[in-house]
Write a structure and sequence with these properties.
Keywords: ATP-binding, Nucleotide-binding
CATH class of the largest domain: Alpha Beta
Protein name: Replication-associated recombination protein A
Largest sheet: 5 strands, parallel
Order of helices and strands: HHHHEHEHEHHEHHEHEHHEHHHHHHHH
Shape: flat
Number of strands: 7
InterPro entries: AAA+_ATPase (IPR003593), AAA_assoc_2 (IPR032423), AAA_ATPase_RarA/MGS1/WRNIP1 (IPR051314), ATPase_AAA_core (IPR003959), DNA_pol3_clamp-load_cplx_C (IPR008921), MgsA_C (IPR021886), P-loop_NTPase (IPR027417)
Strand order of the largest sheet: 2-3-4-1-5
Pfam family, one: MgsA_C
Distance between the termini: 98 Å
Family: Belongs to the AAA ATPase family. RarA/MGS1/WRNIP1 subfamily.
Length: 421
């Protein structure tokens, strides 16, 4: 390294964001994820023994996925190649595979390929990984913030160990912030500043587990603090004034599931909370109202047929007025579904009918109700007429069983009276 290289490196480190400078260099410095890398845990033992298998690390932003892969690169004797899925091509992958084969053949050295944002790879590019992961040409470490079930092809998932990382807790965020303030080598320790307790609590809470954002906000707050050796709450508020509620694909499905289950369970407050989370995170309201329409039939159904009308009207209203006003008809539809009596008889009925169709051959339509038949009798004009509506083989089958709830209670009573006759 000559003088110019040294100056360039020193300059790069000086202007490097605090979050990057404070990136842990070993497992002892690593914060969080004790269920994976705590003392005696399987993944920690695999890393320390340099026996890491192909794996996919899934978790929210700034939960430590890239840092964990970087630590593996420091501790492993293997060749470590870092790629980003956003700009990855088949040609670059093939070149990487050839290098890995050469390393194994010439030096008996394995290759770890780290692919960040692996969910961004198209399916056909993901498929190119299958043979080299399976035969051990490479050890794959993939990182993703998205849903493994929806964004990674199943054959690749089956060839990897999946490790789920959790959002960092407020306590873990506070620990990292204090370390950054005290570290004189890579952090802000040379400034000899402390942080007011309320400022520390505020930043640990508002960052939503995103340590990268918290550290960079701390750095901004520190350099906006003059004539004081304490970082106060107003400086932190200016550096990080708005809570960012971004969500991944996996989060969106979980939040949607929570909303649906609250509607089914008639828990209105819970449904409004999860609805607000979805809306605040920028989820398309049309995606949400489609779920509300489905549940107005699936969970309310005949107990209150008006629920479907309210949900469809909400869809029309959202399209007509747009957002943010569209949140009102959407919330009204959610509340209506929550507060309505529940019946899933329609859901059970159509599912039972479909299952019967799939389990049996296609039965003939009874002659009396075929198109163009001369033997059909209009039951409205002839209430006592006997008509064969079902195939002979299914004449005793019942798909629809009304439940004694809401409006459907009247249908329930009618069916009960028929059975007693």
């Amino acid at each position: 390294m000559d003088l110019f290289d040294y100056n360039q490196q020193s300059s790069a480190e000086e202007y490097m964001p605090l979050a990057e400078r404070m990136r842990p260099r070993n497992l002892d410095e690593y914060i969080g994820q004790t269920h994976l890398v705590g003392k005696g845990k399987t993944l920690r033992l695999l890393i320390e023994s340099d026996k890491v298998p192909s794996m996919i690390l899934q978790g929210p932003p700034s939960s430590g996925k890239t840092t964990l892969a970087t630590i593996i690169s420091y501790l492993s004797e293997a060749e470590f190649i870092k790629l980003n899925a956003v700009s990855l091509t088949i040609a670059l992958l093939r070149e990487t595979f050839e290098k890995a084969r050469d390393m194994k053949k010439l030096y008996n050295k394995r290759t770890i390929v780290f692919i960040d944002e692996i969910h961004a790879m198209k399916s056909n590019i993901q498929e190119s990984l299958l043979p080299v992961v399976e035969n051990g040409t490479i050890t794959l470490i993939g990182c993703t913030t998205e849903s493994i079930q929806h964004d990674i092809i199943p054959p690749l998932v089956s060839r990897c160990r999946v490790f789920q990382l959790q959002p960092l807790t407020d306590r873990e965020i506070r620990t990292a912030l204090l370390q950054a303030l005290e570290d004189t080598e890579r952090g802000l320790g040379k400034l000899k500043l402390t942080m007011a307790p309320d400022a520390l609590e505020y930043l640990a809470d508002i960052c939503n587990g995103d340590l990268r954002n918290a550290l960079n906000a701390l750095e901004a707050a520190v350099f906006s603090t003059f004539d004081s050796d304490v970082v106060e709450l107003p400086a932190v508020r200016e550096a990080y004034a708005t809570r960012i509620n971004t969500i991944s694909t996996n989060d969106m499905y979980n939040l949607t599931s929570a909303l649906c289950k609250c509607m089914r369970g008639s828990h209105t407050d819970g449904a409004l909370y999860w609805l607000a989370r979805l809306l605040d995170s920028g989820v398309d309201p049309m995606y949400i109202i489609r779920r509300v329409i489905v549940h107005s039939c699936e969970d309310v159904g005949m107990a209150n047929p008006n629920a479907l009308q309210v949900a469809v009207a909400a869809k029309e209203a959202i399209q007509f007025v747009g957002m943010p006003e569209g949140r009102l008809p959407l919330a009204q539809a959610v509340v209506y579904v929550c507060e309505s009596p529940k019946s899933n008889s329609v859901y059970k009925g159509i599912n039972a009918a479909l299952q019967t169709v799939r389990d049996h051959r296609a039965y003939e339509v009874p002659a009396q109700i075929r198109d163009g038949t001369k033997t059909y009798i209009n039951p409205i004009d002839n209430p006592g007429a006997v008509i064969q509506y079902m195939p002979q083989e299914l004449k005793h089958t019942r798909f629809y069983t009304p439940q004694n709830a809401g409006v459907e209670g009247k249908i329930y009573v009618k069916h009960q009276e028929k059975r007693t006759k």
